[in-house]
Input
Amino acid sequence: MPIPGAAEAVAELRAKGHQLRFVTNNSTRPRSRLASELREMGFALEDDELQTTPGAAARELSGKRVFALVMAAIVPDLDQLELVGHDVDAVLIGGCDETVEPNQVFSYMNLARAFEEIRMGAAFYCLHKNKWWQTSRGPMLDAGGFVAGLEYATGMEATVLGKPSPSYFAAALDALDAEPELTWLVTDDVEADVRGARLFGMRTAVVRTGKFRPETLETTDASPDIIVSSLAQFPALLEQDLSGGLAR
Output
């Protein structure tokens, strides 16, 4: 369900001339479907305004032989990769969805195959390293645990293609032709988003919706610039900041 006032807030930001980029770590649905779902919720956007982790993987691993443990739905977005089961250049770990598919994708057999390929010299990538994600049934384990397990077993650190990877933020800024210090990241994820964005020099606003948990603010070393109830409140605070009324 859309957050009340969120679509109107996006429309207001556009009307005032602000450039927008929708940046997601979702790794279970193709970009075209995600964009369509957002439009159905009232958000006006083009597919190419939505930046996804499978797209980042397609650019990074184009033409390579890849053993990919990902949800079947995103395979079309990986069409620039040669998806194979052995003798690979790279291992790619995606995320979990709410179906039974993760039971098959992240089976012992598949994880053992990934371990062997990495041990034999394959590069190790993941779309993200999220510990958990917010679902209709509440928080659920995400694939970050599998990534961490393979890192432990192989002694190799995975290259994260999505947030909080600096290259992912850089790609968003390049698409907007924007300077980091003049760019706001609005998010519900303190751990994955705020730390990376702040290290990159971006301003950050955390919304108290979705994945947000108040206790996270008590334990994190990545404090956002502002906290708002929801995206609906952000345009007014942005105008306040532009007029010099928001403390830095």
